[in-house]
Design goal:
Helix content is 83%, strand content 0%. The chain is an all-alpha fold and 422 residues long. It has a single domain, classed as Growth Hormone, Chain: A. The longest helix has 32 residues.
Length: 422
C-alpha cells in the first residue's frame, strides 16, 4: 500500500482530477475491447497483414492531421466540455462497427475508425492539458504517473477481457461495451471542475480562426530546445513502434495462439504488455524520484531496455515466454511515455500546454501510422518473416535513441531562455 499511497492521496485531495481519472479508467478498458475485435475481424475477412497495418495507420492519422487544430481547441475552449463532446461522439461511432458483417464492409470499418480517432485527437490534448491545472505543481509527476499506470492497467485488463469476450460471446458485445464506457466517461468528466481562463484576443480574422494561436505555439516550440527534445521521446519510439504493434497482433494470432482462438493469443500478449507498462514508471520513480534530471536519465535507460527485450520477444519459443519478454519491453516504453509527459507539463505553461501536447501527439501518431503501414507492406510485399522484422525494429529504435541523445548534447541542460513554469 505504501507504494501507491501517494497516488491515492492525489485522488483523494483533487476531486476534479479524480473525475478525469475515473473517466480514463472506464474508457481505456473499453478501447481494448474494440481494438482486439477489429484485429480479429480484419484477419478473418482479409487474412492480410497489410489490412491490419492500414487500420492502424487510419487510427493514427487523425491526430497527425488535426493535432495543431486540436491543440488550439484545448487552449481556447473549456476543456471539460471538449472532453465530454468527444466521449459522446465516440460512443455513437463505435456502435457503427456492428454494421461490419463481411469483407465487403471493411471500407466502413476504416471510415468508422477514422471518425473514432478524430474525436480522440481532440480529447487527448484537452485531457493531458487538464492534468496540471487540476493538481498542485508538486503533484504533476505523480498525476502523470498515475495516468500512465492506469492506461497500463486498463490495457492489461481490457486486452485479456476483450480477447476472452470476443472469443466466447462475439465481437458485437465488445463494441457495445466500448460505447457504454464512453458514456460513463462523459458522466464522470461532467462533474469535474477543470479551470478555464479564456484569453482576450484581438478582433482579427487570424485570431478568430486560431492562426494566431498556432503561430504562438510554434514560436514557443522553436524557442525551447528542451521541449523539442522531450517531444522527440514518443516519436522516437513510434518510428519502429507502429510496426511493432502490428507484429504483436500477427504473432499473437498466428504463432502463439491456441488453434482457432487467435483472440486469446492477442489478448495474452497485449495483457502482459499492460502489466509491464504498469510496473515500469512505478519502479522507476521508486528508484530515482521526480527530479527532471532523473526523468531524463531514466528515459535513456528505457530506450535500451525496450530494444533488448524486443529482440528476446522476437525469438521467444512459446506464448508464456513471449508474453514475459513483451512485458519487460514495455516497462521501458511506459517509462518513456510517462516521464516525457511529466517533463512537458513541467516545461510548458498552462495556457500553452494544449498546443504543445497536440504537437507531441501529432508527431507520435504520424510516425505510428507510417510505421504500421510500412510494416504491413514489408510483410506482404517482401515476404519478410514476422519474427525477423520484429528483431529488426530493435535496431531502428537504437538509431532513434541515438538521435535523442544527440539532441541532448546540442541543447545542453538549459538551452532555452524560457523558465520552467507550471
Amino acid at each position: 500500500m505504501s507504494v501507491l499511497s501517494g497516488y491515492l492521496e492525489v485522488l483523494r485531495r483533487r476531486p476534479a482530477y479524480r473525475r478525469i481519472w475515473l473517466g480514463s479508467v472506464v474508457s481505456l478498458a473499453g478501447d481494448w475491447f474494440t481494438l482486439i475485435a477489429l484485429y480479429s475481424l480484419l484477419d478473418e475477412y482479409t487474412g492480410r497483414g497489410e489490412a491490419i497495418g492500414l487500420m492502424l495507420f487510419v487510427r493514427f492519422l487523425p491526430a497527425a492531421l488535426l493535432g495543431p487544430i486540436a491543440g488550439v481547441v484545448a487552449d481556447r475552449f473549456p476543456r471539460r466540455r471538449v472532453m465530454m463532446a468527444c466521449d459522446v461522439t465516440r460512443a455513437l461511432v463505435v456502435l457503427g462497427f456492428l454494421l461490419v458483417r463481411s469483407a465487403d464492409d471493411v471500407w466502413l470499418l476504416y471510415a468508422l475508425t477514422f471518425a473514432q480517432m478524430t474525436a480522440a485527437a481532440f480529447f487527448d490534448p484537452a485531457e493531458q492539458a487538464s492534468i496540471a491545472s487540476t493538481v498542485e505543481p508538486a503533484e504533476v509527476v505523480t498525476a502523470n504517473t498515475l495516468q500512465g499506470i492506469t492506461w497500463s492497467a486498463m490495457l492489461g485488463f481490457g486486452a485479456l477481457a476483450g480477447g476472452a469476450t470476443a472469443a466466447l460471446v462475439g465481437r458485437d458485445v465488445s463494441f457495445v461495451v466500448n460505447a457504454l464506457t464512453y458514456v460513463a466517461s462523459a458522466l464522470f468528466i461532467r462533474g469535474a471542475d477543470v479551470p478555464f481562463h479564456p484569453k482576450t484576443r484581438p478582433a482579427t480574422w487570424a485570431a478568430m480562426v486560431g492562426l494566431d494561436d498556432l503561430k504562438e505555439g510554434l514560436a514557443r516550440l522553436r524557442a525551447d530546445a528542451r521541449v523539442r527534445r522531450t517531444i522527440w521521446v514518443k516519436t522516437a519510439w513510434a518510428i519502429p513502434g507502429g510496426g511493432a504493434l502490428l507484429l504483436y497482433a500477427l504473432l499473437g494470432e498466428r504463432e502463439f495462439a491456441p488453434v482457432g482462438h487467435g483472440e486469446i493469443g492477442i489478448g495474452v500478449l497485449l495483457g502482459m504488455r499492460g502489466v509491464g507498462a504498469f510496473l515500469g514508471p512505478l519502479v522507476a520513480r521508486r528508484l530515482g524520484g521526480d527530479t527532471p534530471a532523473f526523468l531524463e536519465r531514466a528515459i535513456g535507460v528505457a530506450f535500451l531496455v525496450t530494444a533488448f527485450f524486443w529482440v528476446a520477444f522476437a525469438w521467444a519459443p512459446s506464448l508464456p515466454l513471449a508474453a514475459l519478454m513483451l512485458a519487460l519491453a514495455h516497462t521501458g516504453i511506459s517509462t518513456q511515455w510517462v516521464f516525457s509527459s511529466s517533463l512537458l507539463n513541467l516545461q510548458v505553461e498552462d495556457g500553452m500546454r494544449g498546443r504543445i501536447f497536440a504537437v507531441d501527439f501529432m508527431s507520435y501518431m504520424l510516425m505510428l501510422g507510417l510505421s504500421s503501414w510500412a510494416a504491413g507492406k514489408i510483410l506482404d510485399g517482401w515476404h519478410v518473416a514476422p519474427r525477423t522484422l520484429m528483431a529488426s525494429l530493435s535496431g531502428v529504435l537504437l538509431v532513434t535513441a541515438g538521435i535523442w541523445w544527440l539532441l541532448g548534447r546540442t541543447a545542453g541542460a538549459r538551452t532555452s531562455s524560457q523558465p520552467v513554469r507550471v
